[in-house]
Structure formats: C-alpha cells, structure tokens
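Example record used in the benchmark description.
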Amino acid sequence: MPHGEGNRLYEMEAFATVAELGGFSAAGRALGRTPSAVNKLVTRLEARLGARLLTRTTRAVRLTAEGEAFHRRAIAILAEVEDAEAAAAGGAPRGRVRVNANLPFGVHCLLPRVPAFLQANPGVTLDVVLTDEVVDLVERRADVAIRVGPLRASRLLARKLGESPVAVVASPAYLARRGTPRTPADLDAHERIGFTFARALDDWPFRRGGEALRVPVRGAVRAGDGETARQLALAGAGLARLALFQVAADLEAGRLVRVLEAFEPGDVLEIHALFLGPAGSVPARVRAFVDFVAAALRGGRGPGARARRAPRV
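Model output (structure tokens):
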C-alpha cells in the first residue's frame, strides 16, 4: 500500500503492527521505521479518533477496549487493501504467512506439503512454528493456527480442515514383552502413555456393545506433546492413544500395531485452521495457504494416505 506521513492507511498499518508485535521497537523493525516514528503515527491516529487505542508501559503495550474493536476493523481493511493490490498485480498472493501448527499434524501432514505449496505460490514465504501448546495468535505473531482436537470458545474465525480417528497403538517389541491386551480391562497390566498438558484427557474412552467405558491413563512416563508420545510408543515404553494421521505410516510399516480395535468408540479429532479477525478479513496469502492444505487433505495425499483406515478428511 502507499506509505507516507499523511496516509491514514499507513497509520492504521503502524497501529496494527504494534498491536500484533506487542511493542514499538518490534513494529519499527517490521516497518523499517524508528520506534519513535511508529509511536508518532499511532499517537496521531489516536488524536484523530479521539480515543486511546494502546496502554503503554515500560514493559509492554496492551490494547484498550477501543483498541481491540479498532484492531478488528483495521486488519479487515488492511486485508482488503492487500487483496486489491494482489489483484492489480495479476491476482497471485504475495507476502509472508506465519503458521503455528499442532506438532504431530505439522510433522506428518504439513511439512511434507510445504515444497508443493511454495512451488504453486512463488510470491509467498512461510514462517512455521510447531507446538502442541494452545497459543495466542497475536502474542505469537501468527497469521493462522492449525489445531487438532476440541476448540475453546473464542473470537477467532475457524475453518474445519478435516478430522481423524484415534487408535490405541504399541510397538511389536512392547507387545512381545508385555502381551497384547484383548479387552479394556487388560490395560490395568500395561503402561499407558499420557500427556502433561492441562487439556489432556485423564482417561481413554472405549465401547463394549452399547456400554461406554473409560480407562484411566496411568504409566511411568508422560509426554509433553503428541510426537513425543509417538516416539515413546515406537521405543516400546507403553501403549499410546494417538490420531491415525500421526501413526498411519507406522502401522503400515509394522513399526506400531493397533490394539483394542473392536472396542474403539468411534470418536474423531477435528482439525481446524484459526484466524484473527472477522469473516472476510483473511488476507489472500493466508487463504491460499489454508485452501492448499485443505485440498491436499481431501485428496488424501501425504503420510498415511495408503493406510488401511486412513484419517477421514
């Protein structure tokens, strides 16, 4: 967009960048301006609006209630301007997409598709961070977060990408050493790999006929993320209950074995892309990325696509 001292869009961009990055110094680096110049732009915007948009302290910059409301409108307007510029330049999306993704999904479904996306969208660059933590998109400077599992109520815009069944798995070496459980009751004699994060389930669900069962997750080791749990299962540390998209290739190769399949309750983990801002405000570069991932998942391309019971997407 056109930049200039008297340009209202530039003031809006400066404010949105400060809100996104949490400070004038970081915003100045992103915009190629000094912190004082960015502060001047935001101060002028506040004066024209007659409202305080930011609370400034020596340690942090926070949005006020008025700032929150204006920020939502600002990012929508800036996205429209960006899309208009892209259309005038030939319609190809341009710019950087900052992605924060669930670690197992990132390792098994996202990273293998990055080269194809970049080849199809040469004007786009990617910053990818993988974590099983539920992150704040503004604090982590992310354009889109891909999360697996139930969503908490929030002001984020969500788009469902697909879903994956869940299965209890173990390595052949572990089963040879400890035996194969035939019913959920047999799990009392087995190591069950759990998770350390707060939102993790404390038990595993099963179904026997029409009866719902739940077995507590107890074992000598817990994991901080899904990929660590997979590696522990591969190493023979115990049984793990994981999404099929994560272990489909291991099942196919015989590195892991699916157990208690007859007692699976049929639950699935939903996969969503989350964005800041209202509907219609997502920049073209972000839409292009999410559309690509969603289409690739629907097409079944990538790890696990040939598994006997591949993830439903």
